[in-house]
Design a protein that fits this description.
Helix content: 25-40%
Strand order of the largest sheet: 7-6-5-4-3-2-1-8
Distance between the termini: 31 Å
Largest sheet: 8 strands, parallel
Bound molecules: pyridoxal-5'-phosphate
Order of helices and strands: EHHEHEHEHEHEHEHEEEEEEEEEEEHH
Number of strands: 18
Strand content: 15-25%
Number of helices: 10
Structural class: alpha/beta
Shape: elongated
Length: about 350
């Protein structure tokens, strides 16, 4: 049996742009799209994306189930109460509505317990207005803790077996995020649900992840250049002072664009294929970098994420400098940074 793919495109496709990537995902065979909220799902519908969309988060208030129905979206159900509300609204509108049941096997975020899942399955028997289209759970430690992960997988498989034994046949079973997809082939079941790996990024090294190539680069240009003498302070708080005559380039990106403030005096950018250090504090709209000894001009390209010549800076590099994770760096590239899709 084939394994289907749900492309997780929440948070504007991890900062990449959900609408263009939803089209790419569907054209390349994704059977489902996963988003976090009703608003994210509606934005895809408004852009003309008609593929099945699962809203991974909870729907609240419950009246919003009407909107879910109107837009033909698939809600996640994580309590008997929400299942009953969905069934009531679907029955009133004379509809048969698919939903996915979320089981908490150790993430502790949303989801019913295994016992709660059994109660919902029993309640579902004979209900015509709602259809169990999927059962899923989320792994907390697929990249770090095999014992924890095996425990979650085991619990989840018991719920799946119960559903099958009760006659729920057309159901998708899914628990694999990116880390599990690359490490636990046995956990693919009949649908996988990666986010980060779709974008060519892995949070931690895995053998198969070496083949992944990040799809996003982030580039800017030098907008100002100057030579400054020894002792010159740079940026707010004068936390950096030139120790000799240096050449400084100003780049028009700052923390309002997604450069973490915590990378002040720590981060690097690429210019002319070389890593140039950020000097002084990251400001809202600009950073200053040391380009001493490089033959640079105004307008020269600077790569913040991606390759230039043989050099590369990754989202993970920024995460390391900022004490963060690659997910947060990618999601943090703000709206005012134009996305350009190159296919
Ligand atoms: C974000 C998310 C995913 C994707 O996780 P990755 O680590 O990016 O692969 C899958 N399922 C759920 C429920 C999520 O919230």
């Amino acid at each position: 049996m084939g394994v289907e793919l749900m492309a997780v495109l929440k948070a504007d496709a991890y900062g990449h742009g959900a609408i263009p990537l939803a089209k790419v995902a569907v054209e390349n065979g994704a059977s489902h799209i996963g988003v976090s909220s009703l608003e994210e799902a509606l934005a895809l519908r408004e852009a003309g994306i008609s593929a099945p969309v699962l809203i991974l988060g909870g729907i609240y208030p419950f009246e919003n189930f009407s909107v879910v129905l109107e837009a033909d979206l698939i809600p996640t159900i994580a309590s008997l109460e929400s299942a009953q509300q969905l069934e009531k609204i679907a029955r009133e509108k004379n509809r048969q509505v698919p939903f996915h049941l979320k089981v908490d096997t150790g993430m502790g975020r949303i989801g019913v317990s295994a016992i709660g899942a059994k109660k919902i399955l029993e309640w579902l028997v004979g209900k015509k207005s709602v259809e169990l289209a999927g059962i899923f759970s989320h792994l907390s430690s697929a990249d770090s803790d095999p014992t924890m992960t095996q425990g979650q997988l085991h619990q989840f498989s018991q719920v799946c077996e119960l559903a099958i034994s009760m006659g729920f046949k057309k159901t998708k079973f899914h628990i694999s995020n990116s880390a599990a997809l690359l490490r636990y082939p046995e956990a693919r079941l009949n649908l996988v649900r990666p986010g980060l790996a779709l974008y060519g990024v892995m949070a931690s090294p895995t053998p198969s992840a070496q083949e992944l190539t990040p799809v996003l680069s982030w580039k800017t240009k030098i907008i100002f250049l100057k030579k400054v003498p020894a002792g010159t302070p740079i940026s707010y708080g004068a936390t950096y002072r030139a120790s000799r005559e240096i050449k400084i380039a100003t780049l028009p990106v700052g923390y309002a664009d997604g450069i973490p403030w915590s990378t002040s005096n720590k981060g690097f950018v690429l210019i002319k294929g070389r890593r140039c250090p950020i000097v002084g504090r990251v400001t809202m709209d600009h950073i200053m970098v040391d380009v001493t000894d490089l033959p640079v001009s105004i307008g020269d390209e600077s790569v913040l994420i991606g390759r230039q010549g043989d050099a590369e800076i990754t989202a993970q590099n920024w995460a390391d400098w900022a004490g963060s994770i690659s997910y947060e760096i990618l999601c943090g590239i703000s709206k005012r940074v134009p996305r350009v899709v190159i296919s």
